[in-house]
Write a structure and sequence with these properties.
Number of strands: 20
Largest sheet: 10 strands, mixed
Shape: globular
Distance between the termini: 23 Å
Bound molecules: guanosine-5'-diphosphate, 6-O-phosphoryl inosine monophosphate, magnesium ion
Strand order of the largest sheet: 9-7-5-2-10-1-11-15-19-20
Helix content: 25-40%
């Protein structure tokens, strides 16, 4: 399979977890390279549902090495709970299949508190974060006052650094009217988490380069989506990391020329959770999907905002990430619609855009230009091959891939592994 970067081509929750699980079959190593436990990647195996937040989704297959890279921000208490939860479900997580980078940054309780307080201060302009402390943790990383995993697992160093950091952050929290943290409690909790994680900690850059020398195939598991990228997303309504393909290099230490291809995952429609512009947002499709019990956030349970497929956005995602292959998920969500709209351009003040304008205010004012497709009005969830899909569904998939400027690789018609159609070879 070679080294593959998998990214979300929209606003997150595209079905990356499912596609990672499918592609992991042919990979040796799976690496998370950005984000933290703001992510929620859902995988179904039979009737069992797994929601991964920090642990790479590859963990669900035996004998695959799963790595949390240096670009991830790790809430160690959340990670310990996630590992325990996986073990209770019968998933093996041990030092032979799970590794944590010693230079990944650590999310601390003051990051979560500050995240929440900043949202309150922003009032109606809030971002709608997951309140997992992601922004403040990456902020501290950039300001060079963060703690890394190798500080966490060194008791003496943790005590010294943390005492300074808790003091400074408590002053800020108090000034915001929030309750200060108990240094002793934070230290005790983080010492315990550090002890529980110590066996997994390694220099993951050296490890990954050793694996490449052994000809291992590496799958890079993106979190969030292109338009939540700190540089390329709808700033400030974004997360705080580089979620796009470049982040896979900086977040893992694997250089660009060792990457062989980029897979972009996108839904057959659009969703977003949290605030910020979503040009194709639409009540009809929102009500339809929520009515089926779909499109509720995997991390926070919030209903996702839904809209028509936005090919201006996915084409832009192809450009920024260098997407070669597309995996289109949730096709089955559109099975009952008579007419399906696809946005092909934006109009704004007499101007037409065929790319996503950088200014979030401009984007919020954009009017989508739509083309319409006939719905196929038939269930697709039982289709197992390209030929078994209704012709109108095939036409829709071909059109959105073409509009997105990349090759259709996978069509997904349900959450299960078997509900995955590999298209490229059979597409006519
Ligand atoms: P991720 O964050 O990109 O991994 O996506 P999430 O797991 O947050 O959300 C995607 C949701 O869609 C999950 O509930 C998946 O089980 C589900 N899913 C993925 N592909 C399909 C599909 O083709 N059809 C249906 N019905 N559900 C899907
Ligand atoms: P996965 O990997 C969807 C959104 C939040 C909010 C913004 C900033 O499951 O696709 P943050 O907590 O990161 O500071 O929140 O980003 N967000 C996601 N939306 N899927 C995700 O991850 C997300 N991670 C963050 O809702 O709008
Ligand atoms: Mg998700």
């Amino acid at each position: 399979m070679a080294n593959t970067i998998l990214v979300g081509a929209q606003w997150g929750d595209e079905g990356k977890g499912k596609i990672i699980d499918v592609l992991t079959e042919k990979a040796d190593v799976v690496v998370r390279y950005a984000g933290g436990n703001n992510a929620g990647h859902t995988v179904f195996i039979g009737r069992d549902k797994y929601v991964l937040h920090l642990v790479p989704s590859g963990i669900l297959r035996p004998n695959k090495l799963c790595v949390i890279g240096n670009g991830v921000v790790v809430d160690p208490i959340g990670l310990v709970e996630e590992i325990e939860g996986l073990k209770r479900l019968g998933v093996k997580v041990g030092a032979n299949n799970f590794v944590l980078s010693e230079t990944a940054h650590v999310v601390l309780p003051y990051h979560r508190e500050l995240d929440a307080q900043r949202e309150v201060l922003k009032g109606k302009n809030k971002i709608g974060t997951t309140k997992r402390g992601i922004g403040p943790a990456y902020g501290d990383k950039a300001a060079r006052v963060g703690l890394r995993v190798n500080d966490l697992v060194d008791e003496a160093r943790l005590k010294e650094t943390l005492s300074l950091r808790v003091r400074e952050n408590n002053a800020v929290l108090k000034s915001l009217g929030a309750k200060p943290l108990s240094f002793e409690k934070v230290l005790a909790d983080y010492n315990a988490a550090g002890k529980a994680l110590k066996a997994f900690v390694q220099n993951t850059v050296v490890l990954l380069h050793n694996k490449m020398r052994e000809q291992a195939d590496i799958l890079f598991e993106g979190a969030q989506g292109t338009f939540l990228d700190i540089d390329h997303g709808t700033y400030p309504f974004v997360t705080s990391s580089n979620t796009t393909a470049g982040g896979a290099c900086t977040g893992s230490g694997v250089p660009p020329h060792r990457m062989d291809r980029v897979v972009g995952v996108m839904k057959a429609y659009t969703t977003r959770v949290g605030e910020g512009p979503l040009p194709t947002e639409n009540r009809e499709i929102s009500d339809l999907l929520h009515g089926m019990g779909r499109e509720f956030g995997a991390t926070t349970g919030r209903p996702r905002r839904c809209g028509w497929f936005d090919s201006v956005a996915t084409r832009h995602a192809t450009m920024v990430n260098g997407i070669d292959d597309l995996a289109v998920t949730n096709l089955d969500g559109l099975d009952t619609l008579e007419t399906i709209k696809v946005c092909i351009a934006y109009r704004h003040g007499g101007k037409q855009y065929d790319f996503v304008p950088n200014d979030a205010h401009t984007l919020a004012e954009c009017e989508p230009v739509y083309i319409e497709f006939d719905g196929w009005l038939a269930p697709t969830d039982k289709a197992r091959s390209w030929k078994q899909l209704p012709p109108k569904a095939r036409a829709y998939l071909k059109a959105i891939a073409e509009l997105s400027n990349a090759k259709l690789f996978i069509a997904s018609v349900g959450p299960a592994r078997a509900q995955t159609i590999f298209v490229s070879k059979t597409l006519k």
